[in-house]
Structure of PX domain containing serine/threonine kinase:
Amino acid sequence: KWEVVEPLKDIGWRIRKKYFLMKIKNQPKERLVLSWADLGPDKFLSDKDFQCLIKLLPSCSHPYIYRVTFATANESSALLIRMFNEKGTLKDLIYKAKPKDPFLKKYCNPKKIQGLELQQIKTYGRQILEVLKFLHDKGFPYGHLHASNVMLDGDTCRLLDLENSLLGLPSFYRSYFSQFRKINTLESVDVHCFGHLLYEMTYGRPPDSVPVDSFPPAPSMAVVAVLESTLSCEACKNGMPAVSRLLQMPLFSDVLLTTSEKPQFKIPTKLKEALRIAKECIEKRLIEEQKQIHQHRRLTRAQSHHGSEEERKKRKILARKKSKRSAVENSEEHSAKYSNSNNSAGSGASSPLTSPSSPTPPSTA
């Protein structure tokens, strides 16, 4: 049914994910993309449930999910085919890049850094939040939101790579949210990742570090309010808001969505239960990792504190004081002993009974 046209080398950021440009044999002008990925460390579904869920993906239809043409899996990897989009992803729009170029060439040295217009930020943000809410309500974990996983179709955003959480692959932003112990559910992971995506849409580049202490001037204060609720120090320390809370914020609440397509994704009850258990296992592993990072950071802080120049000086001063004190105490002890022995010799007191010397005769005076 399909033929390989050419491999698309390094168009994504994952080392172990391969892409191929395809064509349909009886429609040679139609272009498709085949993606092939191995399993990751968070794959907790049984092989049977995993294969059933992968094969369900083409049946999922939602105005803001990019349609899967074909999907299959074996015990170690999954293969999916989707239509090729000449316009590319949301990240391609922000960086003015060509979809077929390698990832590093596309995004690592942009010629011009420029965010999107306010109306685009509002519309795209609202669409992405709507699809996140849909997946959360279905009990389908996502956890892989970033600008390269959002396909642009005119003025419509469509989410890509729903299979990543089934495969157990690590998230693009894992190194960020694994630092914060309050971001410990896949729902809160999605909200935090949405904060990163909104920042990139607003300023044309990702944040230098997270949490963000102060935000550069934005097209609207409503944008900064959402960024503060997902990327600020306070938000990372206290936890993320729910998707429904973000939808009510002024930036997105007045956006009108014009779509007639009815969302549809039927997951059998048995598979829903398997997904719930897998989601709990993914979250448990994340919490364990966060605990280890937290302990390591405490240990590193303690070591750097004790190894600092100031602490070393303090310890030297304390050691000097201690040695002086012990020297004074020793000399006092020594003089006390000396005076005691002089006193006992002068008074002619008898030596103790245990002494081996002969007893002194009584004085006749």
